[in-house]
Amino acid sequence: MKQLRAALPVVWLAGPTLLAAQEWTRFRGPNGSGLSAAAAIPSAFTEADYHWKIKLPGVGHSSPVLWGERLFVTSGEEADGKRLILCLDAATGKRLWSRTYTAARHPKHSLNSLASITPAVDANHVYLCWPAPKEFLVIALDHQGKEAWRADLGPFRAGHGPGASPIVHAGLLIVPRESDGDSCLVALDRRTGQVRWKVPRAKEGSWSTPCVFQRKDGSADLIVTNYRQGIVALDPETGRQRWGLDVFDKRHVESSIGSPIVTGDLVLGVCGWLGVRQEVVAVRPDATGRKAEKLYAIQRSAPLCTTPLVKDGLLFLWSDEGIVSCAEVTTGKVHWRERLEGTFYASPVCVGERLYNVNTNGDVYVLAAAKEFKQLARNALGEGTHSTPAVAGGRMYLRTFSGLISLGGKCPHGGQ
User: Fold this and answer.
1) Rounded distance between C-alpha atoms, residue 31 and residue 39, angstroms
2) Are 378 and 364 in contact (CB under 8 A)?
C-alpha cells in the first residue's frame, strides 16, 4: 500500500516552470506534480540502456530523492525491523554512506513495507520519518550522514502501517502524522527540529502527502486531505485553516491514500475504498483564499493508491487496476479510458510528453500524454515494485523491491 529545500521557488511550481536539471526533493518531485522536463530518457529500453543497476539491502516502497549528484533512498529489514538510509553517488550508484536505525517490528498491511515513506531533502539535510507504535521519529541528517537533530512526535498506531511522506516548505518540514489514534499535522523548524505548530487531524489512517497551492497574490496554502475532513487549506506559517470542503462520499468508509495535486487555480483530492468506490474531486479556491467550491468528481475508474497527474490541461488518472483515463482538468470531461495489464501502486510521472508508470510485476508502461490514447512502450524491469519513479539531472531512477536502476541521459555504451 502506498500512499498505499533550501528555498528554491521553482521546485514548488507545478506547470511549465520546470528545469531539465531540477532537483527531486520529495515524493513525486516538484510539489508532488510528477512533472519533469528531462529530455534524454528513452521510451523503449533494455538493461543495456541502464547507467547502473544495484542491489539494495532489505525491501522498500519509498521513492529516491536527489539533491545535485547525491541520491537518498530508504529500506527496511523485515526480519528484525531495522530501517536504513543510503546515500549514493547519482552518477555511478556507488554507496557514499549509510545509516541503520533499530526498531521493534510492528503490524502493517501485507502490501506495505517498513520503508514506504519517501524522505524529503534540501540543500542542507535529508529528512527521515520512522513511525512505530511507541514513537514517531523524525531525523535530519546532513548530506554527509551526520545527524543534525531528531524529534519524537509520539506514538503512531495504524494497523496498515505508515505511508504519508514529509515535505519541505520555506523554513519548515511538514510531517503528516495521521493514524487510527491521536493524529496531527506538524511543522518543524528544518534547522533545529523544534515544533513551530501542530494541528489536530481526524483519528483515522491517511496516507496522502501534502502539497502547496500558490495563490495569485503570492501567498501559499498547504493542501491536505483525508476522508473525514475532505480537502483542507492551511496557512503554512501558522497551521490555521483557511478553507475546507467536506467533499468525499460519506455513504461508506473511505481512506485518502493517493495524494492531492494542484494545477493552475484548481486543487484535486483522491479518496476511496477498495471494492466500494474511488473518487477524484476537483475544487477551486476563490480569490480571497477563504473558501472554495467543488467543481466535479470523477468516480468511474478512479485511483485509490495512485496520485493523479496533470499535463498541459489534461488530467491523467491511473487506477490501481490498470485503467488509465484522460480528461479535461477544468471540466472532468473524459477523452479516453484504456486498460493495461497488471496492478499499480506506483504513481505516474511525466517526462516531456510521455507518461511512465510501473506495475507490481515491474513492467514499465510508457504512454503519450495526449488526448488520444497511444502506448509507446512496455519495458520489463525483471522484478516487481510499488515505488514511484524519480527523475532528476536528466535521469530516471526506478526502484524495485530489492534494487535501484538509473536510466537516461548519456549511457556508458554511447546510447541515449
Assistant:
1) 20
2) yes
How many angstroms separate the CA atoms of 394 and 398, rounded? 13
Reading the block at residue 65, the C-alpha cell is: 530523492
User: Which amino acid is present at 296?
Assistant: Y
> Grid coordinates standing for 20?
531539465
- C-alpha separations of 91 from 11, 144, 191, 395 in Å: 22, 17, 28, 9
Give me the average pLDDT of each 10-residue run along the chain (416 residues): 34 36 87 92 95 94 95 89 94 96 71 82 96 90 98 81 89 92 93 97 86 93 95 97 94 87 97 86 93 96 96 97 98 98 97 97 98 98 96 96 89 37
| Burial group, residue 290, by CB count within 10 angstroms (0-12, 13-18, 19+) | exposed
Long-range contacts of 91-98 (CB under 8 A, 24+ apart): 91/51, 92/52, 93/51, 93/52, 93/53, 93/54, 93/404, 93/406, 96/70, 96/145, 97/144, 97/145, 98/57, 98/145
Integer Cα distance of 220 and 209 in angstroms: 16
C-alpha span between 54 and 230 (Å, rounded): 41
CATH pick for 9-407 out of 3.90.1150.10, 1.20.120.80, 2.130.10.10, 3.30.565.10: 2.130.10.10
In the chain, the N- to C-terminal Cα span, in Å, equals 34
Virtual torsion, Cα 118, 123, 125, 131, nearest 10 deg: -20
